Amino acid sequence: MSGIIHFNLFEMNCVGHIQHGLWTHPANNRHRYTDLEYWTDLARLLERGLFDAVFLADVVGAYDRYRGGPETAIREAVQIPANDPLLVVPAMAAVTEHLGFAVTFSTTYEPPFAHARRMSTLDHLTKGRVAWNVVTSYLRGAARNFGLDDEIEHDLRYEIAEEYLEVLYKLWEGSWEDDAVVRDRERHVYTDPAKVHAIDHVGKHFRVAGPHLSEPSPQRTPVLYQAGNSDRGKDFAARHAEAVFTGAASLEALRDDIADTRRRAAAYGRDPSHITFFPSASVIVAHTQQEVDAKIADLQRHIRPEGFLAQRGSGIDLAAYDPDELIDDIVARGGDFTERAVRPLAGRGLRVRDVLDSVGRIGQGGPFFVAGTPERVADEIERWADETGATGFNLMQYLSPGTAEDFIELVVPELQRRGRYRTSYEDSTLRERLLGPGVHRLPATHPGAAHRRG
């Protein structure tokens, strides 16, 4: 297998995203996340490195299960403080011409009509370079922030998400006909009213009259990202997603997950090749292995296991259990934890002590980790892409922007020499970059396309 490998930079509008504690490193600029220049400088860097997109994560609640409250997350800056991911996109778009922007937004707590207009606005302002990472939100605190006593049950959140997308497809794809905007100065007609339609959606969870307030944007529907790991999440991805952020624990598990999602997509009548798969990637690279080892040791001194436990504690509060207890026994008894937290730990014979000992250790936090020279890093990237069917990676940052700078300086040229990385941008929209020239709208086999008129 061969071909161009896609790359997003995985980011978040906050101090502490994934690598907890590293905000204290003197070479890290994460404390500048409130400065507009942080984001515009990052965007210029990524466009110079020919990245597909910057992928902006988000949460709408604090991690509050570890040690019985949010204090650890607040103290350690575990995705709090965190600002809105959508609002930095126009600034980054203004200093770039090609870089894409994938932004996270939840279907669970805010109604679809306003979100439809936000995304159409971003698609206009970026000239078709925007994607939406569809999430249903899993934090208990998020539910309480929006007036609920506790988080909505998992499968019900996906039921809501299905109808949410149905409403959006009607607004984005069906409310305005392609030739509704005529801009006829002589007749003083900007839009032909006969070609703009109410959607009159009445469902179990939403009532939306329409019409959509935005005229058709370059992609109409933004590229749809999704990151569900449960069975229901995979089914949702198979129906809707055009890019899947997957967190499988091993090469074999990743290969199986990708094959499974593609089978499901085909069963829904979609072309499985229309889904791009992005596992997370942690990369430490330098000219020599000695330099790599020194980098790892330097980073490890700043890592804070408490931060990792606070984020993982959104599902299981490991501090509350006997260190010698088996994770599988904890899961079998049931309790106040989520499948999201259990899935990477269960069925592996691990004790609580084993998990605690590995927390925060560099190289233990994700499915794909490689530390080495540019040649070794490129070898592993190729191997994982070719053996799993992954079409790209989400590069996680240890230092901002140092991780991206190292990757662009050292790994990108090596992948280019092998013909596995683009040497220029040759597309106008983000969807075309992933699916091919001319495919700026949802493919005909996508369920959203069924809502088009004519």
Automatic annotation (TrEMBL):
Instruction: Tell me the InterPro entries matching this sequence.
Output: Diverse_substr_monoxygenases, Luciferase-like_dom, Luciferase-like_sf, NTA_MOA
Keyword GTP-binding annotated: no
What keywords appear on the UniProt entry?
Flavoprotein, FMN, Monooxygenase, Oxidoreductase
Domain Luciferase-like, chain residue ranges per copy: 25-390
A Pfam family this chain is assigned to: Bac_luciferase
Alphabetically, the GO molecular function entries are:
monooxygenase activity
Instruction: Tell me the NCBIfam families matching this sequence.
Output: FMN_nitrolo
Family membership, please give it: Belongs to the NtaA/SnaA/DszA monooxygenase family.
Q: What is this protein called?
A: FMN-dependent oxidoreductase (Nitrilotriacetate monooxygenase family)
Upper lineage:
Bacteria, Bacillati, Actinomycetota, Actinomycetes, Streptosporangiales
